[in-house]
Amino acid sequence: MEAYTAVISLLRTLDQPYISDLFHGHTANALDSLRATAEYFHDVLEKASNKSGVDIEKIKSLEEEIRIVVSEAEDAVEMKISEIIKGERWTFGILQHHDMLPVVEKMDTTKKQVMEILSHDAHQILELTEDSLIGASSMSDQMLSDHLKDDIVKGLDGDLEIIDKRLRGPTSYLDIVTISGMGGIGKTTLAKKAYDHFPIRDVWDSISQIFPNHNNGSRVLLTTRETDVAMYANTSSPHKMNLLDLDNSWKLLRDKVFGLEHDHPPELEEIGKKIAEKCQGLPLIISVIAGHLSKTVPKTLKSWKYVAKTLSKIISSHPNKCLGVLGLSYHHLPNRLKPCFLSLGDFPEDFQVDTRRLIQLWIAEGFIRTSSGSRESLEEVAEHYLEDLISRNLIMARKKRFNGEVKVCGIHDLLREFCLIEAEMTKFMHVVRTPFSPAQKPNFRRFSIQKYIEDAYKLLPPVARSMYCFSNLDLPYEPRIKLLPILPIYRHDPIIHGFFSCFNHLRVLAIFPSSFSTFPLVIMKLFHLRYLQVHCFGNIPESISELLNLQTLIYEGPSSEITLPGKIWMLKNLRYIRLGGAFYFPSPRIDNNLVTGMPNLEELYGIWYSSCTNEVISSIPNLKRLIIRVHWRILENFPVRPLDMSSLTKLETFKLYWGGYLKDPIKIFVFPESLRRVSLTRCSNFIWEEISSTFIMLPHLEELKLKRCRAKDDVWRLTDKDIFRSLKLLLLSKLNLKGWEASSDNFPNLKRLVLKKCKDLQEIPTDFVEICTLESIELHDCTTTAEASVRNIEQEREDMGYNILKVYIHNSHSN
């Protein structure tokens, strides 16, 4: 897999637009040769990944040869680029060409060796098969003992009852009942249990042909780890298996350890539930840990506490029972998805991974490449990869946006353990958790430092491409990860300089916890840096302009008034800017000359309103997400002027934090029709008619959120002409709204209505009962009369026979 990753990375390096400007003549021809050979290796590895019945050791040897030579080639290309940019030596003509010749020759030699191997074993290595689904389920079933299967089924009684009803349902047509879920959740075990259930088996035996459809009530039961497969087999309501909740997890663990008819010692219940909780609802792990507790561990509080602390080690000591089963899902992944999945091992346990940052990391790492002729952006391709991994139940969606987009993701601890083992074995990544000696110097290119080890940087290879820095501390009162410093902070000393100056090939530098007194200038020497996340005091220096390859800048710190340097506009590859608090964005003029702008910038998070000039807006034409902040102190000294954003034709998300009570912000902005999500916070002195007239003009608007806003009037009256045609989510929070006059025609596609602490609003418009698309209404700390009106709507909907309306009422004053 690392060979494939290395090839993709080299191709991405050679695809950079400025390559053609730097290299000419013989050297350009040399790079073309490298590209052609890399494309050949890419095709070979793609086909080899679909191998069946081949010599695995031969494949591994082949991939290792490719990995080494491709990595060396990329090192040479990047070093040559750095020399040219820095002007450190004469790099034109023959000398430049000779520098690349050894690399080209070595690539050619390896290519000939690969071709020779393929000529002997083409019938094996390049054979394409379609045995993925059957092979995966049968192999996973063989890995589990009958005893273990029975243990797992004990926690799936509810699922078994649902499957039983569907298999014996009243419909007469052929029905395919699908069961989907992550590896180890019990799909195949549940299917076999259902098949063995006597009333279900008198049905199966009656089938005389392969899946006949003679209107005689035939049923097919299919299990899969991939949601897409389940949906393809039958799009109508596949049975999605969920992880067990804490109660069922503890019940399964308790019954396995103590038996169904035996009581457990009361002093073990609390720690037992903690152990069950750490299994994260996966029956396979619960059963394995229960077996460990019942056979090898004394039933004492001290010994069970030790098990709770060492759960990951126990799981990894049972590779055939746990990791092997989950490994099938990974090994059946296409090559393009494997590095993306393994990269989740970079993060500590239970880390909440922001999907937008993850996508930027994948792009910076070189994992994402668009196919020739494709119009999709790198971000869009990466989003598809993420969706694919989620549908295969390898990545879990922790939080979702209303439109279904995944906001935060993560992986099960067991899958993370698999990632760490696989990443180490394939030389994909090394996680620094324990000290190591010079003799153990890891020969990797990606590192995740999850424990500070003094002088560890001296033992890491200078060709490292990615560096993730973490340190974890579990707080007794907060169920989250606290990140603590792992690098020296608040000063510039030789250690800091030494740490960063060692790794001239770095592409990713993500320092999550540490704070620096000022921006470490030595970082500016990392020319190939694409992703930078750092926590500093003060502003970013002008020398940031030296990082010409930078795509993502995440700069977090205590300052609320960061000023970006003027030369930030020289970074044409920037895609994502997010600074802590708010920041001033300079004019796109350098030495009084207007620059060409940032054509790749897609997200600008936290810019001050005073920086949003027409020059700035016109220089970021492809922006997709924009967050603007305004402070009342700025409004006092800054003239309010219109801001025309209509040229941002790709803008989808707009958030405004007004923070003042002096002006009416609604009239100031001219919005593009492309907007899908709008959020306004602390806006004031507007009238409700402006809300209607402004936002009904946005044909694609799906989400509208108004938070802590105070209008001049207190009644929102919508006329027959005020139609929010595409609006699906409406959120009103802490408003001075007393009355709301509207009909179902005003919101024809509304799905979700959320009201929070609207303590003056007396009722929800009764005509909302007619909105046939409405799925849910949520009230948080609203008036009792508003709650009563929602209950009336709920009852009327039920009486009229509409689809069920889900009503959630949360009131801090009552249960």
TrEMBL record:
Main location: cytoplasm
Domain of life: Eukaryota
Membrane-spanning parts: none
A Pfam family that the UniProt record links to this protein: WHD_DRP
Keyword annotations of the record: ATP-binding, Coiled coil, Cytoplasm, Hypersensitive response, Leucine-rich repeat, Membrane, Nucleotide-binding, Plant defense, Repeat
Localization of this protein: Cytoplasm; Membrane
General function of this protein: Confers resistance to late blight (Phytophthora infestans) races carrying the avirulence gene Avr1. Resistance proteins guard the plant against pathogens that contain an appropriate avirulence protein via an indirect interaction with this avirulence protein. That triggers a defense system including the hypersensitive response, which restricts the pathogen growth.
Entry protein name: NB-ARC domain-containing protein
Native source organism of the sequence: Solanum tuberosum
Lineage: Eukaryota, Viridiplantae, Streptophyta, Embryophyta, Tracheophyta
